[in-house]
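Weekly modeling sync, notes
Attendees: S.R. (lead), two postdocs, one rotation student

Agenda item 3: backlog of single-chain predictions. S.R. asked that every request posted to the team notebook include the full sequence so nobody has to chase files. The rotation student volunteered to paste the first one in as an example of the format we agreed on. Action items at the bottom.

Example entry:
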Amino acid sequence: MSNTQPRFFLNEKEKNYYQHPKTQSREVITIKVPDCKPQIPDPQKEKEIEKLFRGIIKSMGLFQDPNSAHSYNVSDLDGTPRRVAKMFVREIFSGLNPQNRPEISLFPNTYQYDNMILVKDISFSSHCEHHFVPFIGKAHLAY
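Predicted structure, as returned to the notebook:
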């Protein structure tokens, strides 16, 4: 990092400040994240997803006549819509709930380190919004 780059630190009172690279003047900065509430409560989401996923299973013909040789045992699938709904809301898409947002934290640069920092092999996972399938990978970050 060049000496003309701005730097962000914590001051002695744990408040954030910006240090101008040339004048060394300091400005206090505030990082505000809006206090968001989910539009639909999680239990309500789970009920709706359970109902809709039950419809998907029926549309696929998985809840057919239990006496048919080509159908699944209905009791085997009975809890599946509920399990899928819980998985979507509580696990896979839990990050969509604003109450689960990560906290922002800063730390003092006590060693006055000003070289490039590289963090490698950060695991991530997400879902394709077009096909609704998962993808996973590794990311590398330099700052």
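Discussion: group reviewed the output briefly. The helical segments are 42-59, 74-77, 80-92.
Action items: rotation student to repeat for the remaining queue; S.R. to check formatting next week.
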